[in-house]
Write a structure and sequence with these properties.
This protein is an alpha/beta fold. The protein is 63% helix and 8% strand. The protein folds into 2 domains: 112 residues, Glutaredoxin (3-Layer(aba) Sandwich), CATH 3.40.30.10; 147 residues, Alpha Horseshoe (Serine Threonine Protein Phosphatase 5, Tetratricopeptide repeat), CATH 1.25.40. Strands 1-3-2-4-5 form a 5-stranded mixed β-sheet, with helices on one face.
Length: 299
């Protein structure tokens, strides 16, 4: 009889744990499983759409869910929006379609499906609430609004950078090239402070196009001349990616380790650690496969 109680208690505990886990992604928020469904409902109900992308391996996704999405005020405000949750471990295609490359990523859309803005990485509940208020009040510009302002101010480098960055973030890097090249050409002395960012984005575009050599040149210029710039951590990360594309595993590992040690507790460090783990597993697998026949023959 005691055994029955123990089993029942264990079952109850497991159910409680599962319930706790299920509550992590904003328990009071109605999450839709696909972008198609979310966009259809947002259009029909004339509501803003929020799409939250997470990854099981991402500690920052877990922290975002615990500290931001579980916040009572955040839950109340998101109840007025149409919400979609994409688990990248289950759905690998949708993040690629919407140019999501880091986790967590949260993207906001107008009822017509136009992207308003996106948040990459971890922010505080207070910052997220402020963003929600700004979006509700129409204080955050959409890409079309930015383009209209850019057309009226063609010499504004900061505006060119903002538009270029949005194009990169939304998976249209070809439209960003002219903006970043304009900054690099017209501001060689970095008087605007935009040159490190323009170089980083320019290198990233080459990296995405599978051109690691020119990408490296852009990243190295940032690390050589602007190593204290906020973009440096991304350049180390992307440099690792470029070397990986060139099959130089040692240099890739060195770059990823630099990110982890110099910039802990950042999305870049988390991504670098994930890539280091995968490279280590790959090397161990190759080594085991290579040594396998010799080991078998010695026996």
């Amino acid at each position: 009889m005691k055994r029955t109680y123990v089993v029942a208690a264990a079952a109850f505990l497991c159910a409680a744990l599962l319930t706790a886990c299920a509550k992590k992604v904003g328990d009071e928020i109605k999450w839709h499983p696909t972008m198609e469904e979310g966009k259809e409902i947002a259009s029909a109900e004339n509501k803003t759409l929020i799409a939250y992308y997470s990854a099981d391996w991402s500690k920052m996704s877990e922290a975002f869910e615990d500290e931001v999405l579980a916040n009572v005020e955040v839950e109340e405000k998101l109840a007025d929006l149409v919400a979609v949750h994409i688990d990248s471990d289950v759905d690998e295609d949708t993040p690629k379609t919407y140019a999501v490359t880091a986790y967590p990523t949260t993207i906001f859309y107008t009822p017509k499906g136009e992207e308003i803005t996106r948040v990459v990485g971890l922010v505080s509940a207070e910052e997220f609430l402020e963003l929600l208020d700004d979006i509700a009040a129409g204080r955050v510009e959409t890409l079309n609004e930015l383009l209209a302002r850019e057309e009226a101010n063609p010499d504004d480098l900061e505006l060119a950078y903002e538009v270029g960055t949005m194009y990169v973030e939304t998976g249209r890097p070809e439209k960003a090239l002219a903006r970043f090249d304009k900054i690099l050409t017209e501001d060689a002395a970095n008087e605007s402070g935009l040159r490190p960012g323009a170089l980083t984005n320019r290198g990233f575009i080459e990296l995405v196009a599978q051109n690691p050599e020119p990408a490296l040149a852009y990243f190295e210029e940032v690390l050589e001349n602007y190593e204290t710039a906020p973009e440096a951590k991304k350049c180390y990360l992307y440099r690792g990616d470029a070397y990986h594309l060139m099959d130089d595993v040692d240099e890739a590992v060195a770059s990823y380790k630099t990110v982890v040690t110099r910039y802990p507790d950042t999305p870049e460090a988390e991504e670098a650690q994930s890539k280091l783990s995968k490279l280590t597993m790959l090397e161990e697998t190759v080594e085991a496969f290579t040594q396998g026949p010799e080991t078998a023959g010695s026996e």
